[in-house]
Amino acid sequence: MTTYNLSSPVTGLRYNAKQTENGGAVFVKNSVIAYKLTSSTCTEITDIDYPSRHTYAVTSITRSGSTATVTTTATNSLVTGDSVTHAGAGQAEYNVTATITVTVAGSAYTYTVSGTPATPATGTITAVGGKTTVPGVVYLNGYVFVQDINGPIQNCVNGDVTDWNALSFITPEKESSNAVAIAKSLTYLVAFKQWDAEFFYDAGVAAPASPLAPVESSYLKLGCATADSICEFDGGIVFMSKRDNLQRSREIHVLNGMTPKKISDAAVERILNGDDLATCYACYLSTAGHQLYTITLKTSLITLVYDFNTGLWYQWSFLTAQSAQSITG
Known about the structure:
Elements: E1 16-20, E2 25-29, E3 34-37, E4 42-44, E5 53-64, E6 67-72, E7 83-87, E8 97-99, E9 101-104, E10 108-112, E11 126-130, E12 138-140, E13 143-147, E14 153-157, E15 160-170, E16 179-185, E17 188-193, E18 197-202, E19 212-220, E20 223-224, E21 231-233, E22 236-242, E23 251-256, E24 259-262, H1 266-274, E25 280-287, E26 290-297, E27 302-307, E28 312-316
Antiparallel strand pairs: 1-2, 2-3, 3-4, 5-6, 5-11, 6-10, 7-8, 7-11, 9-10, 12-13, 13-14, 14-15, 16-17, 17-18, 18-19, 20-22, 21-22, 22-23, 23-24, 25-26, 26-27, 27-28
């Protein structure tokens, strides 16, 4: 067994993984970085058109007043409003994480510094910044799809997860709500948003455009309460939904294709609506002839389990083997 150490610009982020290319590789990502894993290699996705944070070597940093101007040695994909972390300058004031303003697309930007550090900056300087993706990876007909937090769903070149094109994207547009996650239901890509969900299929649109097209006849006025509730199973999806921000409306739905089915009951929904969803974990299990969806709400210290075979909900607890238990009558 080969072990790879994955290094992320931001620690503590959860990873998603998806098998690709007939099992020949695994695409692994968190919100700021991605890798292609094979039996013998671990390759970081460094294509600047992949929507993640990238490391750029800095040619120079000069200062005028409180404005620092940065030039990178290679073409960058940074845009105004990106958060960029600078390191390696001999003057500590330059080594900050800051929101940037692009002045020359692909090569130069500015940010604000404190004090009066010497100009130009000295040292071997790097800048780490770029886009962020929502949770979820979809593999469909040779393409890997990820979604920028600002909405665009981007795809790799067919059959090559290391090659991306800035023009290969499509954006959900039926409702102006925030992107939450993407997942696959049968042969459809589902874009979950804050208050709704949209469906896309492989329409075979020629590159460099996205191959996807929206399923105009299908649209869900169901948002996703948290990406951490989503589980794919047997071609379908289980997720915690919410309908709007005016009522406590969290429910658990199963999505087979484009048809949702509510599986939560009033008791489960009271628990879901009572949690702050700051930390939750969900998984799908198949064991002893039962198919189970489990979701743990860490703040509430509750694990809920749905048995697809019986249609019943349970609450799981964990006991230490052979330890004494106290019962109050």
